[in-house]
Amino acid sequence: MLLVNDTRKCSECTCGPPSGGKCVAETVLFRNENCGDPLITTILSAVDAPACTSAIGDGDIVSMGIFALQSEPATCVPSEPVIVSGRLEEGKTHVACCDR
Q1: Looking at the domain assignment, is residue 45 inside a domain?
Q2: Which of 15, 44, 48, 50 is the most exposed place for a label (fewest CB within 10 A)?
Q3: What are the pLDDT digits (tens) for 70-98?
């Protein structure tokens, strides 16, 4: 059996700003602790301004649920090339004996 010494290493990765991602969620405020009796439902995406309200209407918020409707991760372009240094070097040959 021939062993190999692997001395390869990669440089640190750096990335430009993320782009192209999309996140959409439904936010529901409920009147009871069992997430029943919805009070307000709002669809939010990552590009929306913060959704705030000072008046809720008739009732208090007791629980809240956030449900993901769409999730697409953003991507980024490497800002510097990855440099690989080192090499594969032939090591010593070893004999392995197996007993069946």
Answers
A1: yes
A2: 50
A3: 888 889 888 888 888 988 888 777 777 77
Query: Any bridge partners for residue 60, and if so which?
Result: none
Q: Tell me the two tokens of residue 96.
A: 């392995």
What CA–CA distance (Å, rounded) separates 13 from 96? 39
pLDDT of residue 54: 55
- What pLDDT score was predicted for residue 56? 59
Residue 78 lies in a domain: yes
Q: What is the 3-state secondary structure (H, E, C) of 40-55?
A: EEEEEECCCCCCCCCC
Host domain of residue 38 = 2-93
What type of residue is 68?
Answer: A
From residue 65, how far is each of 22, 26, 52, 89, 93 by CA, in Å? 20, 8, 16, 56, 61
99 close to 6: Cβ distance less than 8 angstroms: no
